[in-house]
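Sequence in, structure out.
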Amino acid sequence: IVGTAAAIGVGSVREIASVCTVPEMRKQGIALAVSTAIVAWHFTTGGSLAWLTAGSPEAERIYARLGFKRVGATQVNLSDPSPALSE
């Protein structure tokens, strides 16, 4: 295992959390891949809202590629599944 992600919550609302990649495997798209997979799973199983807090500008750029948008100072929200996730 070189990367992880989790969807924490109940029902149709979940926080995307614990996204991490082992240091020696970073910069290879693993965080994007595991984030894409967990967000796709959430929305294809009836999810209606996913949210997260990016821990760094680099992480925020990864999440922006999935359709997450900044709301306020630190919290990022996604209320609709990205069209890219349904392909």
